Amino acid sequence: MTVAIEMGHTAAGAAATLDLEELLATRLLVQGNSGSGKSHLLRRLLEQSAPWVQQTIVDPEGDFVSLAESFGHLVIDAEEHTERGLQVAGERARIHRVSTVLNLEGLDAENQMRRAAAFLNGLFEVGRDHWYPMLVVVDEAQLFAPAVAGEVSDEARKLSLGAMTNLMCRGRKRGLAGIIATQRLAKLAKNVAAEASNFLMGRTFLDIDMARAADLLGMERRQADAFRDLERGQFIALGPALSRRSLALRIGPTNTQPRNATPRLVPLPEASTEAHAIVMAAPPPDPQRPPRQQRRPSPDLLGQLMAAKSAALESRAEVAEQPVSAEQLAERQERVDRVLRAVMAEPDAGFRPIGVLYQEFVVRCRIDGLGSDVPDLAGFRHMLTRARAGLGSDIADDDAWQDVSVRASMLPEEMQGVFMMIARAAKEGWPCPGDAAIARAYGSHSLRRARRLLSYIEEQGLIVCQLDGAGRRIVTLVELAWATAPGDPNADEPSACAAAPV
């Protein structure tokens, strides 16, 4: 079934339509200077397609929240949620097929990028069973996929750019159709813009943007000046979902209105002395900061503070000088392992970023009274690798595992846990872990990625994989002569090694 959405009319008066099914497969890029009508175009597209397909809008200015009243979109105020909460919200919205508006109004640029990235990653990472068709509209896309680094941190830029790249480059197979709108093509990352096959180009004045727009539409450079003459709401369209040849069209009216309407001229009130007095009046006191006291502490109080500080430093030095017994070290390690088991017992712990896991680990350690004995991030990575392999402290420190640890260090850090899990299964004679268990240990939902991971480890000369007559997999560790028992690669339940306690 072909669903044709009427976007407006052409210069000849004919209806200008957009093939919705073709759009889902080929994506859309909208470009135009401020005031050219980009938001109006997106609103028209969303209103016309709302009965046919699930939608989500990444809205940096809160322009599209009015869609909720007429079309039932769920408005998510990003300022009220954490990044983790937004990622889960994205997953649930995709699973339950709820159209949403991610309202980023009120946040600074860096927090907008972080929260938008978390929400888009939630849409992207759901299981295959929930890959329903979905329009993902990103207004002011140059904010989330900038061509060059700006004032935000590199970490925020990488998170946001990675999420936008996933949406435009890999989203099609997951049912995600990216629709991005930008004021300037020169400010938008080329890897993101290049994945769109449909284009709607509006009024543009800068030469560099006009040249890029003309190249995308297959126009000659001398024809690029036509973009300066476009009126508000006029666009030139090209693409398999729009037109096979460049086509000028005017966007039709919308049923809903943005909260931030175009400013209108309003006569100024008559000048008065009262207004002048109000403007120049003294500012009110800051309610969050008490009035500053000019009184200085007395010499006696300063002496007490210095004495208390000296006593605290001496007590810390005495505690540091006390030797720690082997029993105390063993007790501390047991408490750290217990905290790690609690973190790994969370249902989604295997698929959360290591930074998030470490933050939760540190908080739990402090609650448990470990204080300054919390391992650093590098130590936590080593512990997490060991835990995902199903190894406890006593097993991992055994002499028999020294060679395994050396061989694991030849692999990237995120793969070492998988190798050690297979090594333990081989040493104990357990069945070979299935693809689901390997993917879980790697921190992924993808079974295909698990199979590629085994192939990579085999290419490094560390293991040999083979199938028996029943199609069960056997993995042998090179030079160690350890081999797993035959195991079903497609087994849903966790293997014995994956289920073993940490």
Automatic annotation (TrEMBL):
Stretches assigned to the AAA+ ATPase domain: 24-214
Top-rank lineage group of the source organism: Bacteria
InterPro entries: AAA+_ATPase, ATPase_Atu1862_pred, HerA-like, HerA_central, P-loop_NTPase
Signal sequence annotation: none
UniProt-listed Gene3D superfamilies: P-loop containing nucleotide triphosphate hydrolases (3.40.50.300)
Name of the protein: AAA+ ATPase domain-containing protein
